[in-house]
Amino acid sequence: MSDASRQSSPLKSNVHDTALVIEGGGMRASYTSAVISMFIREGIWFDWVGGISAGSSCVANYLSRDEWRTRQSFVDFAADPNFGNMRTWLQGKGLFSSEYIYEQTAAPGKALPYDYATYLANPADFAVGAFEMRSGRTQYWSRSDITELHDLLVRVRASSSLPLLMPPVEIDGEVFVDGALGPTGGFAIDAAKAAGYEKFLVVMTRPRDYVKPPAKVTSFYRSTFRKYPAMVNGILQRPRRYNHTRAELFDLEAEGRAYLFTPDNLGVSNSETNVRKLRQQYALGEAQASRELDAMRAFVGL
Fold first, then answer.
1. What pLDDT, in 10s, does the model give residues 213-255?
2. Cα dihedral across residues 170, 178, 135, 227: positive or negative
3. pLDDT tens, 158-188?
4. What's the predicted TM-score (pTM) here?
5. What amino acid positions are annotated as catalytic residues?
């Protein structure tokens, strides 16, 4: 189907009363992106989806309904020679070469071509969140902020830009880093509530019993970001905020208002680039998603 015909043939959603919220976690999404792939494969189409950091990449891929790109982004793509390393970090491009990863790979014929026509035809709205370094506020962007593909890609990059490891991103005169430094610790649950949702399916990238330990902010960190005290505070406060949001999500689960997908066999860190390990994690995530498919279908009424 041509781009023009796809844009003139809007797609449909079939989940209208539940928000899909996708947690970040860098390459831990090698496990949980399998859940998003399964939703695409099974035709489970939420009317609203929100994500922060790696979760924002999953949001973009879900909106384009691209199962291949959803998997590739957190598995085989790590073998790309331009993915990033200490050399690119010393060059100021990031340990993960973020401009390349998020913006330069999406064109036709590139490493991760993005199906923008399907994105345009998709009726679902979304929220992608990043942390504004000067003020400490969280900025959420939605479909109304996107007029061309680059608008989406640069916002996903901003949402995913880990301080120190990746350069910050300037958008409309403000400078942004990873949205996980915001008030929820990395869950777009506040954006989902603001959109009017009271029921949530949350794809999480930490095990059910995980508790984030207190942050250690070194003098190097304080010195590097001395002009951005709000960001240093965001780093310090993130564990408390993260643990508080998780507790809230488990309360919502107990009330029957949330379905929480929590990894059973997570075995990689957020910076893992070993493709063999990433493939193993994706396979484990796929198996767990398959086991939970009927329960998730029942939760969303399909």
1. 998 877 888 888 899 999 999 999 999 999 999 999 999 999 9
2. negative
3. 999 998 888 999 999 999 999 999 999 999 9
4. 0.94
5. 53, 178
